[in-house]
Amino acid sequence: MSSYPATTRAEAAPVVGGPAPIICRSARSADIPALIELGARFHAESRYKALPYDRGALRARLEDAVVRPMDHFVAVADEAGALVGVLAGLLTAFPFAPVPIAIDACFYVRPDRRGVPAARHLLAMFESWARERGAACVLLGVTSGVADERAIRLYQRLGYQLTGAILGKGV
Q1: pLDDT by residue (tens digit) across 20-71?
Q2: CA distance 124 to 129
Q3: What's the gap between Cα 13 and its chain centre?
Q4: Number of C-alpha atoms within 13 angstroms, CB side, residue 145?
Q5: CA-CA distances (angstroms) from residue 133 to 61, 100, 166?
Q6: At how many degrees (to 10) do helices 55-67 and 32-45 cross?
Q7: What are phi and psi of 103, to 5 degrees?
Q8: Which of 129, 83, 138 has its CA nearest to residue 108?
């Protein structure tokens, strides 16, 4: 597939690139255990691995997000029943402007599935979801230390521009 139309939350997007087709779709409640395991992989690979990984807290957040699709977004890349990627985001607003903006909370694709179109398809779904909800823009953070430069290059190829930086310091 050389071009990919934006999908809505309910549509599935087939992705070619592995031993089985990867389907990008909205997350379901039944996906939560697998999302928690995928989150553990992300956590172990990220700069946040020194922080505790609280499966119960993540479960509660995912349960809330999956049942609130108007202001929360969770989509997965599903390869023959195994989740290989996730993009979670939400609507918020700038404190100075009462217009919605969409931000990502977590965007992760397993290392063995990076380079296939799954990330682009998940992002297209997120953009479509944001557009349907009247978001003025989509803002993506790159802070995890997981292939940061690669993620920035992907985002820039898809039309995103660097608009600042996030600096961190332990306290």
Answers
A1: 899 999 999 999 999 999 999 999 999 999 999 999 999 999 999 998 888 9
A2: 9
A3: 15
A4: 11
A5: 21, 8, 26
A6: 130
A7: -125, 150
A8: 83
122, amino acid identity: L
Using CA atoms, how far residue 137 sits from 94, 151, 167, in Å, is 11, 18, 22
**Token pair recorded at residue 41:** 């992989």
Is 63 strand, coil or helix? Answer: helix
| Residue 128 contacts residue 6 (beta carbons within 8 Å) | yes
Contact by Cβ (8 Å): 47, 145: yes
130 has pLDDT over 70: yes
Which tokens in the block code for residue 88? Answer: 């979670």
**pLDDT over 90, % of the chain:** 78
